[in-house]
Amino acid sequence: MIKKIISLLSAAIILSSIFSISSSANSAQTWWKGTDASGVIVTDDESPVIVKNEVLTFNIDSFPENYYRSEYEMKSYTASVTAQYTFYNPSDYDVTARLLFPFGEKPMYFYEYYDNEKDEYVDFDDTEKYEIILNGEPVEKKLRFTLNGGEFDTETAVGKIIDEFTKDNFYYPEMPVKKYTFTVSGIDTDKYHAATAAFDIETDSSDTRYYFVNQSGLHTQKDGTSRISNWVKNGDTLTVYILGNTKRDFPEWSFYEDGGVDDREKIDGKMTVKDVSLMTFYDLAFSQYREESKIPETDWYNAVVEKFNTNKNLLGAENSLNIEKDLLRWYEYEITVPAKSEVINAVNAPVYPVIDTNYSPAVYDYTYLLSPAKTWASFGELKIKINTPHYLVNSDGFSFSETDTGYELTFSGLPEHELEFRMSTSENPVKPKKSLTDILPVEIIIMLSVIMIIAVLAIILSVIVAKIYKKRKKIKTLK
């Protein structure tokens, strides 16, 4: 009997372990976001300059790591893209044009490294070794930044780059802001382990908005108001900013059962005002700004305003003022093309793929936006070269030919689609068969595991009960 119980328990433990191992093996990050790059954009709608041809060269001698431990390791990554343009000016006058070249945000794997001597994470400037050349001579370039708003649209993206603070319908630098700091107490922690604190605001207030730094939830009420909330425990400190009409009284706080925000779930709790201070929107916007970041103040301010305008109720989790990792980077520079003449302009920038380690070996996805080149009056031949010792495993419809140095493709004009291609150290990277954790959410797997263990324990209990019942019946028969 004991052997049977041990066997059943062992089976339950083994099954549970299988689920645990699968979940653990898949909890590691297997996908790292890269960045899109793009062609150069002319900002003068009336420019007569045309592109006679472009040679787009990817030099991919190595793939990025998914984690870097030092500046030395980061500097060892040299993969780049060079766009070389032959510009021609058919007019009778010299043309000076301001050009913009977007080359993506910093990828998550190349943003910063940990400096053991300073005992902190340090930002790394990855643009120092890249340059812009005009007829063989370096051209001064300026870094510009805009909020990365998802799918790239040339006209919208270029319109964000201005040299002054944006004129917004609600936000302006001198706007008054009142900062409230609260402390939480009075919650029955023996009964509630994930209580919620919330307050209600007008959804479409014309003169007031709120920035709840700790906010985790937003619930629209039947009366049209918005209930913004956060999980709390005794001793927590919460920060809320009122922007605009700072003369308004702060809304009343309410507390709710674990995870709830329904009026029927109210519980006791106390929110105490710890501090109140006044500032301007400019102060708030620059509270996370780092001067060493090289981001122009106008670019930072305008990105913050855009970020805040994405949600008028200012979800704290989505509208963090530390926006540095959300910024798309651009080169801005000027060139002059003499009348009836041509110049050769080369732009060199880092290239960062998406890393997908679900494959064996890993695959690397590259995206280059060709559509911005439509801003030119005319565009001639486009030659794409990929210099690499590695394999091109997918080019999304682009028919590359193999060369001694890698791959090559030529178009008589701009293709309709953006350039996307995938590379690997193997010609045929293999994606492992899906495990149970790829098919089902971890929560369901854990639940099934628990149900299985309970079922096994129930079987064990039933065996024990049956055994005891059998013994008792045998004793009664003997009597």
Mean pLDDT level = 83
The chain-level structural class is alpha+beta
Q: Sheet with the most strands?
A: 8 strands, mixed
Contiguous low-pLDDT stretches (5 residues minimum) are 2-30
Shape: globular
Radius of gyration: 30 Å
Tally of helical segments: 7
How would you characterize the overall build of this protein?
There is one protein chain. The protein has 7 helices and 29 strands. The chain has helices at 2-27, 71-75, 154-159, 281-285, 297-309, 436-439, 442-478, and strands spanning 31-32, 37-38, 41-42, 50-59, 80-89, 95-104, 112-115, 120-123, 132-134, 137-139, 142-147, 176-185, 195-201, 208-212, 217-220, 226-232, 237-244, 254-256, 266-267, 270-280, 327-337, 341-350, 354-356, 363-369, 379-387, 391-394, 401-402, 406-411, 419-424. The strands form 6 sheets. It has an 8-stranded mixed sheet, with no helix packed on it. Strands 1, 2, 23, 24, 26 and 29 form a 6-stranded mixed sheet that branches. Helix 1 (2-27) runs antiparallel to helix 7 (442-478). It is globular, with a radius of gyration of 30 Å.
